Amino acid sequence: MPVFIGVDVGTTGCKVLAIDESGRVLDSVTEEYPLYTPKPGWSEQNPDDWWAASKAAVTKIIKRGKVSSEDIEGIGLTGQMHGLVVIDERAEVIRPAILWNDQRTAEEADFMNKLFGREIIERTGSVVQTGFTAPKILWLRNREKENFQKIRKFMLPKDYVGFKLTGEVKTDVNDASGTSLFDVRKRSWSEEIISELKLELSIFPEVLESPEIRGELDSEVAKELGLKPGIPVVAGAGDQGAAGVGAGATVEGVLSVNVGTSGVVFTSSDAYRFDPLGRLHAFCHAIPSKWHLMGVMLAAGGSLRWFRDALCQPEKVVASMIGDDPYNVMVREAERAPVGSEGLIFLPYLSGERTPHADPYARGVFFGLSLKHGKGHMIRAVLEGVAFGLRNSLELMMELGIKPKEVRILGGGSRSPLWRKIISDVFGLKVYLLEVDEGSSYGAAILASVGAGAYKTVESAVDKIIKTRDPIEPDQDIHRKYLEYYRIYNKLYQDLKDDFKDLAKII
Predict the structure, then answer these.
(1) Are 473 and 424 contacting, i.e. CB atoms less than 8 angstroms apart?
(2) What sign does the CA torsion over 6, 35, 209, 231 have?
């Protein structure tokens, strides 16, 4: 029985997942590692911690016996995007990796956006964000000249694990799209941007399509892991690209909506489309010859978690007494509130916002509070406010010509039938759960099955493997009512955006 492994190099740990040819999950192991914050706003990890965790997770899967090492036919990689790993001429790591959520590069990101203007959006599919890779490289050149001069190659996080597995320094088009150095339309490094920034092309890794083989498992590493030597290791994709594959978002208009701490709306695009204002990310898809559009809101499930921790101590006590989850107790309160929370609107900008407002100053707001409102109204308003924020991304996609067909929802928020119903009614679309909701590692394993030859294409693998369940139909009357609230929701940000900045000056 052929088995395929997906390795997800996340921010908190490495998850290794094993599936068979039909997509059935055979085993899964997660190994955690530390995150370092040497200064406020800095976020770093040791790449060797990723490698140690990857080895430990693979070894644990083999030792547990649910998977035979002889059956493993392919390994796929995914992980946190935008990070920077640099190695010297001896292939040794020069300094700790700078991660996607590191904020030290504001000056460098601003420099690039001013230098290239709107051209950077057209070429790379996005404005330059502080968390992206290019500003990190410029920061090294500006602030750590000695380390910069030692660079022989740079890598993205999952590619360091790929390098340790195969000895090859390579990346894929999806992960490379998040560097602000990649020509997304042409699916190759942008020599124009690289030249303008006075960077050496020699430090850039070779780029492959996601299901292509980056190399074979090194014989010494195979012995250490208890695996066969020569197993193909597939290029893989960034975490969101792999999650899109794992959700089956391989056809235009099929939306993957991930309601985790942040919220992500993702769809495939048959042509390269980009938002001229850079409010959406337009990246190469993990599917060759396709692209994807993605919007990100920063506090989706994070908004509900904040409300739980700040205001729901009684619900925590009740949940403990009856052996339930506090979220379930909270949602039962929200169910008693009517659609629209009787005129209460929540702006979920607790961490600033990314899509559609790239605004670090934006803050959360309850608008319309009155004496008739109770905690149930407030909880429901949070659920509805997040759904409105997710709809912002949907509307930007529609402006670019995407015709939405259905939603496939995943992440912690998908466990709430009420939240799924609210999203269905706000979007006006049918919402499905996934039979298997394993996220990025599942998508990486599917890519491995394609690279190893079990399937000819990513699309054929997804058609065979991905199954949906528990559809929720939108109520069109409620949808129309939600659109009235949504209009006010959008106007509130425009009315308050200058006040958000003024408030930041006096805090």
Answers:
(1) yes
(2) negative
Q: What percent of the chain has pLDDT over 90?
A: 97
| 173, two tokens | 């088009």
Single pTM value for the model? 0.94
**Residue range 48-81, pLDDT digits in tens:** 999 999 999 999 999 999 999 999 999 999 999 9
Q: Are 261 and 301 in contact (CB under 8 A)?
A: yes
Question: For residues 443 and 15, what is the distance between their CA atoms, to the nearest angstrom?
Answer: 12
| Type and span of the H or E element at 379 | helix 375-399
473: CB partners within 8 A, 6+ apart: 424, 430
- Angle (deg, nearest 10), helices 326-335 and 301-311: 100
Q: What is the pLDDT of residues 123-140, one digit of tens each?
A: 999 999 999 999 999 999
pLDDT for residue 264 is more than 90: yes
Catalytic residue from among 102, 159, 183, 239? 239
Q: What is the rounded radius of gyration, in angstroms, for the C-alpha atoms of the chain?
A: 23
What is the bridge-based pairing of β-strands 44-45 and 25-32? unpaired
Does residue 239 carry a catalytic annotation? yes
Q: How many CA atoms lie within 13 A of 115 on its CB side?
A: 16
298-331 per-position pLDDT tens digit: 999 999 999 999 999 999 999 999 999 999 999 9
Bridge partners of 459, per DSSP, are none
Strands (E), 218-288: 232-234, 254-259, 263-269, 281-284
Section 70-95 average pLDDT: 97
List the one residue out of 191, 175, 437, 405 whose CA is nearest residue 281: 175
Report CA 169 to chain centroid distance, whole Å.
23
Amino acid identity of residue 449, one-letter, is S
Q: What's the distance, CA 176 to chain centroid?
A: 14
Task: Share the mean pLDDT of the chain.
Answer: 96
Residue among 256, 251, 241, 300 nearest 427 (CA)? 256
Taking CA atoms, 19 is separated from 75, 229, 282, in Å, by 11, 20, 30
CA 46, CA 369: separation in Å to the nearest integer?
Answer: 47
